Backbone:
């Protein structure tokens, strides 16, 4: 019998309740060992949209773009891609591809073209959005800008919605690689404003949380199923009850295409799942997919991890301390997007497909995950944790 996400959630909730809140570090007993390793359930075929649209995707060949293209085509839309032709150039041989370098402000290939909707994926630079807006003014009915949950000025309030203030910068330096990471949120916020200026009343701003699933090269979610599959004692952050939020790139892409089909405008947080998911539930769901797993989660609380200089998000990806400045980062309201049709596939599908994508990589790439604590360091921290528990 297939094990559904609802089952995982139930298992996790019972377990979480049994362990109680406010636990420090401890060994979690067998979480879901009895759950079978189920084959992926067949997905229903995608129905054609009532009205085919002409869609221009700025980008389209990286992580989320290909999922958008596949879903848009399955819905019967005509897709055109605009990029430099460098990233995965062999993808989609039958899709129209226009070339241009946004860093150089080159939009010549769009001259004279008209589209129902433009989806702008790759940028954090206000200038890029401003120039795309100028190039496409009056020649597209809707402009969808893919932003980020990182736009918010503060993340201390759990379950805040889209009305929360966005970050600002006095130095909106476009394209300064030094400032790139540091200014990601404020530049995305300014880019959102450019989209709204260029397409007043016709702009859709999508603010995704951590995007995961097949095609993800950051390994932030991937670290966990890979680590759980390896088995043994696994350092887990915080408590099993800490909330996490992720969105499968395919759910995000389908939502974006549906926003285009339904003419949905405005600003939407886009992350998942529908109801709060805890770290314990997420890891339990992963273990449930590994036959005869001997994985055991050893939870190091926030203070212990800080003492050990084990960082949330990078060493312990997906997770951030659920208090203080990051209390709200993994707890954003998605009520507005749910009302407009954001849907989620089962977490088990995301886990399975993430592992399948990882397994297709070269041995060298597989050995060098880009997120998660290094194996040797994890063992050191586990030793320190168990010594502390005994003391
Ligand atoms: N990953 C996450 O967890 C996360 C979370 C929140 C928000 N986001 C946002 O989600 C979006 C993800 O985008 P993606 O990379 O998956 O999109 P994508 O559309 O799949 O890939 C990026 C595209 O941009 C094109 N591109 C790059 N530089 C270009 C340039 N100078 N001129 C023209 N085209 C250019 C690339 O093609 P060429 O190289 O061939 O030009 C590629 O087709 C980003 O906006 C990101 O900020 C991500």
Residues:
């Amino acid at each position: 019998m297939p094990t559904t996400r609802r089952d995982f959630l139930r298992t996790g909730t019972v377990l979480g309740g049994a362990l109680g809140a406010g636990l420090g570090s401890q060994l979690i007993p067998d979480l879901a060992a009895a759950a079978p390793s189920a084959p992926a359930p067949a997905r229903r075929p995608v129905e054609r949209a009532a009205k085919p649209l002409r869609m221009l995707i700025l980008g389209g060949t990286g992580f989320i773009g290909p999922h958008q293209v596949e879903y848009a085509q399955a819905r019967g839309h005509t897709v055109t891609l605009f990029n430099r032709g460098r990233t995965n150039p062999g993808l989609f041989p039958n899709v129209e591809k226009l070339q241009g370098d946004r860093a150089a402000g080159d939009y010549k290939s769009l001259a004279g073209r008209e589209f129902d909707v433009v989806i702008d994926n790759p940028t954090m630079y206000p200038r890029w959005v401003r120039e795309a807006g100028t190039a496409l003014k009056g020649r597209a009915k809707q402009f969808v800008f893919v932003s980020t949950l990182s736009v918010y000025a503060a993340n201390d309030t759990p379950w805040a919605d889209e009305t929360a203030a966005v970050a600002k910068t006095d130095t909106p330096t476009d394209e300064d690689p030094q400032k790139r990471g540091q200014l990601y949120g404020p530049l995305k916020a300014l880019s959102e404003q450019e989209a709204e200026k260029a397409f007043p009343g016709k702009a859709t701003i999508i603010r995704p949380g951590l995007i995961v699933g097949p095609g993800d090269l950051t390994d932030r979610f991937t670290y966990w199923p890979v680590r759980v599959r390896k088995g043994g004692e696994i350092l887990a952050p915080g408590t099993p009850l800490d909330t996490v939020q992720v969105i499968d790139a395919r759910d995000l892409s389908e939502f974006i295409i549906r926003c285009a089909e339904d003419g949905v405008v405005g600003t939407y947080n886009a992350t998942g799942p529908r109801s709060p998911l805890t770290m314990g539930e997420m890891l339990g769901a992963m273990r449930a997919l590994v036959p005869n797993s001997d994985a055991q989660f050893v939870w190091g609380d926030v203070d212990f991890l800080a003492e050990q200089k084990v960082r949330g998000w990078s060493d312990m990806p997906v997770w951030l301390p659920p208090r203080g400045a990051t209390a709200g980062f993994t707890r954003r309201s998605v009520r507005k997007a749910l009302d407009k049709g954001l849907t989620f596939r089962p977490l088990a599908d995301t886990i399975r497909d993430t592992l399948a994508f990882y397994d297709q990589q070269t041995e060298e790439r597989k050995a060098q995950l880009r997120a998660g604590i290094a194996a040797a360091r994890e063992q050191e921290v586990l030793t320190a944790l168990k010594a502390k528990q005994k003391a």
Notes: Confidence is low (pLDDT under 50) at residues 1-38. The chain has two domains: 5-39+214-245+274-331+346-390, 54-208. Residues 59-65, 83-87, 100-103, 121-122, 124, 146, 148, 208, 210-211, 218 surround NAP (CB under 6 Å).
